[in-house]
Amino acid sequence: MTSRGGETITYDVFNKPLTINGSNGTSSFSYGPNHERFKQVSSGKTTYVINGGAYEEIVDNNTGTVTQKSYVDGFMVQTKTGSIIEVTYLHKDHLGSTEAMTDANGNLTGRMSFGVWGQRQQASWQTGTPSTGELNAFKTQQGYTGHEQLDAHHLVHMGGESMTPASEDS
């Protein structure tokens, strides 16, 4: 797929996405010698990915603010911005999709829901997608089957391959 709904996607020689251009902006990706993604520039932020995604450093290109995220076994995220450290626990379903997030005290901090083909749904399983505010509140982009959600482009980034979430009737 090189275009879809007004978006264009360019790929490298290993068939990994290099750029995604669309009405919601542009995302660009850089890969290392073993074809693992190590950098993403999207929505005014640059994300550096280290150790297969176990560590991320996110730089806000406008403010210079640096956020560090450490993922522990796919069930916990430690987020550090300046001197503020937050711990978030990820609760997954049988497919590995993040369903709920709780803080260190066990308080619910967010919910995610996905249709059978990976499209985001409201956490209550109602039709429609979460609001921008709900999406920004998530402490992780790990969503459907534990893969990164590229919400601006309505794609699931599966480690180099991208999947367009669809409904069974589309």
Question: Can you walk me through this structure?
Answer:
This is Rhs family protein. It comes from Cellvibrio japonicus (strain Ueda107) (Pseudomonas fluorescens subsp. cellulosa). The structure is a single chain. With 170 residues, this protein is mainly β. Helices cover 4% and strands 49% of the residues. It contains one helix and 17 strands. Strand 4 (25-31) and strand 5 (37-42) form a beta hairpin. The longest helix has 6 residues, at 132-137. It is globular, with a radius of gyration of 16 Å. 20% of the residues are buried. The model has no long low-confidence stretch (mean pLDDT 81).
How would you summarize the topology of this molecule?
Elements: E1 3-4, E2 7-11, E3 17-22, E4 25-31, E5 37-42, E6 45-50, E7 55-60, E8 66-72, E9 76-81, E10 84-92, E11 98-103, E12 108-111, E13 113-114, E14 120-121, H1 132-137, E15 148-150, E16 155-158, E17 161-163
Antiparallel strand pairs: 1-2, 2-3, 3-4, 4-5, 5-6, 6-7, 7-8, 8-9, 9-10, 10-11, 11-12, 13-14, 15-16, 16-17
Task: Explain briefly what this protein structure is.
With 170 residues, the protein is mainly beta.
